[in-house]
Design goal:
Strand 6, helix 17 and strand 7 form a beta-alpha-beta unit. The protein has a six-stranded mixed sheet, sandwiched between helices. It has a three-stranded antiparallel sheet with strand order 2-1-4, with helices on one face. 39% of the residues are buried. With 594 residues, it is α/β, with parallel strands linked by helices. Helix 9 runs antiparallel to helix 10 and helix 14 packs across helix 16. The model has no long low-confidence stretch (mean pLDDT 81). It is built from 19 helices and nine strands.
Length: 594
């Protein structure tokens, strides 16, 4: 409940209050049925009605009517009361479920906005499948599977209390005995099953995540599995996972059915014991009235006890399955949502200065193991700056810090005088980034160029402009559907080089003033790489370039190269200067024949 807003909590409490009122309607209906039973026995035996029934007839002004009329009026009132309660409950339940489902969708949407405000290191602390589960199905388990069932539980418990109090007024001994019997049976069932059900629920959550992960792994590694002849292994793993999930679902359902049958037996036994006790201790008229009221109440009590028992089992199971979502909701609770700063495709970035200043950047993923150590660098507008160094030198981590995807433990980065996130918010599209492996979405070429913008904003003119710079325009023009060609999941209908060029074209859609590339031409053939490099070099002066260089041949003409080793800047200068002052750089250059 703490995860809900104040307004939502008030709505939940209102729903509970209304369901308690429905419980009072049930009590009225049951008492009217009991009065009918008493009148029927009185009529058959030609005796006098009891004091309580007489007072009821007087309050309704029907004490002078015939027995048949009195029974007809009481029966009509009882039927109207119970039917109205059932119809109102049905309508209210539907509205409550829609309320919870919509609130679940809203919470899920809010969580996504907060989730996207996390740094990359915290996002990567969970598997993608676990995050997807927590943000979608897990939230549904929280709202409908836990809070929704809890609301029904409160409603049914209130009904039991109300009917119990009513029975105490009719016959205290009977009410006490029924309470002891039903409470004892429900407690025994609960104690026997709730720990086991919660454990099954947690395992179901784990198995759901693992199953999705296995399918994801198999699809992503299909070619390797094909040549290793290991497709059958993954198929077996996925099948085993589905069997385990099926067993867990069946176990939870079976436990709920156990409660149903046990309570049915309890009701029959209780009715027989009550009838035996009443006919041996009181008059036939009173005995029949009490038994009638008990049976009428039991038609409401038994389903309510069953729903309480099943609700407790459901809550335990759903709490287990909701655990990843609750954990994520707690983690994100006090974070601000990421805002959609612009609805337009902006290509003119007034007042943006493409200078980057990084000062004494220190960063670690694991405490005590520094990935970056007091790294400082400066990039002036219009410059071509490269980051070079061996594998593990910290180049990509430094770029992630510059992009604001990682927060350094010490030091700071400024882009156009602001922190990266504030700069991106103030000048959306002024900075672009091209990773080594550009992600391709399952959509059209136009949708991939837009990535984050509505396709309607990507005019043909813009698309062809950037595709020409990426040397991909001729290929796209040869396709029957042109810009509206579907590229397939993860771009499976494109070659590796075409996917990389599409990523470069996408980065140019907003006409950025600062372009950051992580060896964005590594999958290209020599001629195409040369052509694209020439296109990017023509942007020099208008566009500031920061390039991670895995191949030094791509940064020979850089204005300045920062050479990193073990998270530190060991040297900086032009290509030729670094060959002179850094033996390590000279060795790498000579190995590449430069």
């Amino acid at each position: 409940m703490r995860l809900l807003s104040t307004r939502d909590r008030k709505l939940v409490y209102f729903v509970i209050a209304v369901t308690i009122f429905f419980g009072l309607m049930d009590l009225v209906g049951v008492m009217l049925i009991g009065a009918i039973g008493s009148l029927s026995v009185t009529g058959v035996s030609s005796g006098q009605t009891g004091d309580r029934v007489s007072r009821l007839l007087q309050s309704l002004n029907i004490e002078t009517y015939s027995l048949q009329t009195q029974v007809g009026i009481l029966g009509t009132l009882a039927a109207l009361t119970l039917i109205s309660k059932t119809i109102l409950s049905l309508i209210f339940t539907k509205k409550s479920l829609f309320f919870l489902a919509r609130r679940g969708a809203m919470i899920s949407a809010d969580l996504v906005k907060k989730y996207f405000s996390l740094p990359v290191s915290r996002i990567n602390s969970r598997s993608a499948q676990e995050s997807i589960y927590a943000l979608t199905a897990g939230v549904n388990y929280v709202m409908v599977g836990v809070i929704g069932v809890w609301m029904s539980l409160i409603s049914d418990i209130s009904l039991l209390l109300i009917l119990g109090v009513g029975l105490f007024f009719v016959d205290a001994t009977t009410a006490f005995g029924a309470t002891v019997i039903f409470a004892s049976v429900a407690t025994i069932l609960h104690n026997q099953m709730h720990h086991k059900v919660k454990a099954i629920g947690e395992r179901q959550s784990y198995l759901n995540v693992v199953g999705s992960q296995r399918i994801f792994e198999a699809v992503n590694s299909y070619r390797e599995l094909l040549v290793r002849d290991r497709r059958g292994y993954y198929a077996g793993q996925i099948a085993q996972n589905r069997y385990q999930l099926a067993d867990g679902t069946a176990n939870i359902t079976f436990m709920q059915n156990i409660s149903k049958y046990v309570l049915e037996l309890t009701l029959v036994a209780s009715a027989l014991l009550l009838a035996f006790y009443q006919f041996n201790t009181t008059t036939a008229s009173r005995a029949i009235a009490v038994v009638t009221i008990f049976i009428a109440a039991s038609t409401r009590i038994t389903p309510a006890v069953l729903r309480v028992q099943q609700g407790l089992i459901q809550i335990k199971a759903n709490l287990g399955q909701a655990k990843p979502a609750v954990s994520l909701m707690e983690e994100l609770r006090f974070l601000n949502e990421v805002a959609d700063s612009s609805k337009e495709l902006l290509r003119d970035h007034k007042d943006f200065l493409s200078n980057v200043t990084a000062t004494d950047i220190t960063f670690h993923y694991v405490l005590g193991i520094e990935v970056l150590q007091k790294v400082s660098m400066e990039v002036k507008p219009g410059e071509f700056v490269a980051l070079a160094g061996g594998s593990g030198a910290g180049k990509t981590t430094l770029v992630d810090v510059i992009l604001g995807a990682l927060e350094p433990q010490k030091g700071r980065v400024l882009i156009s005088g602001l922190t990266p996130i504030k700069a991106f918010s103030k000048w959306p599209g002024a900075v672009s980034y091209v990773p080594q492996d550009s992600p391709i979405i399952d959509g059209t070429l136009r949708e991939n160029l837009g990535l984050g913008y509505p396709p309607s904003l990507l005019t043909d003119e813009i698309c062809w402009e950037v595709l020409a710079l990426a040397r991909l325009d001729e290929f796209i023009k040869s396709l029957p559907d042109g810009l509206d060609t579907q590229v397939g999941d993860r771009g499976t209908r494109l070659s590796g080089g075409q996917r990389q060029r599409l990523g470069i074209a996408r980065s140019l859609v907003t006409r950025p003033k600062l372009l950051i590339l992580d060896e964005a031409t590594s999958s290209l053939d020599g001629l195409t790489e040369s052509e694209i490099s020439e296109s990017l070099r023509k942007l020099k002066g208008d566009v500031t370039l920061i390039v991670i260089a895995h191949r030094l041949s791509t940064v020979v003409d850089a204005d300045r190269i920062y050479f990193l080793e073990s998270g530190e800047v060991k040297a900086e200068g032009t290509f030729n200067e670094l060959k002179t002052i850094s033996p390590e750089f000279r060795v790498q250059a000579e190995l590449m024949g430069l």
